[in-house]
Amino acid sequence: MIAATGALVAATALSACGGALPPPNLRTIAQIERAIEQTLASKLRLDGKAYCPQTVPVMKGEVFSCVVLVRGRNPVLFTVTEIDNVGRVTYVGQ
Q: Which of 26, 59, 78, 89 could hold 8 in an S-S bridge, CB 3.0 to 4.6 Å?
């Protein structure tokens, strides 16, 4: 297992928020958390803090969730999907 995670979901307005294409090559949980936070900041101008599981198997098809806390809003859940065995992921807010 390596530390690889990332997922954020925002309340109503954040449901269309997701990772950019091509998918980022993110090898650590911290990188995934930062990518989600940066996506929220750049696309929706929201400042949030992402929290993902600290260990996730690196395996194509693995899916996990991250929670993002945004001041003044309900927590947002992001679903992260590993698209290969080397750390490329996609993420989308629920």
A: 78
Q: pLDDT at residue 24 above 70?
A: no
Task: Note the pTM of the prediction, 2 decimals.
Answer: 0.73
Cis peptide before 75 (omega within 30 of 0): no
Q: What is the pLDDT of residues 45-74, one digit of tens each?
A: 999 999 999 888 888 999 999 999 999 999
| DSSP labels, 29-80 | HHHHHHHHHHHIIIII---EEEE--S-B---TT-EEEEEEEETTS--EEEEE
Query: How far is it, in rounded angstroms, from Cα 54 to Cα 23?
Result: 21
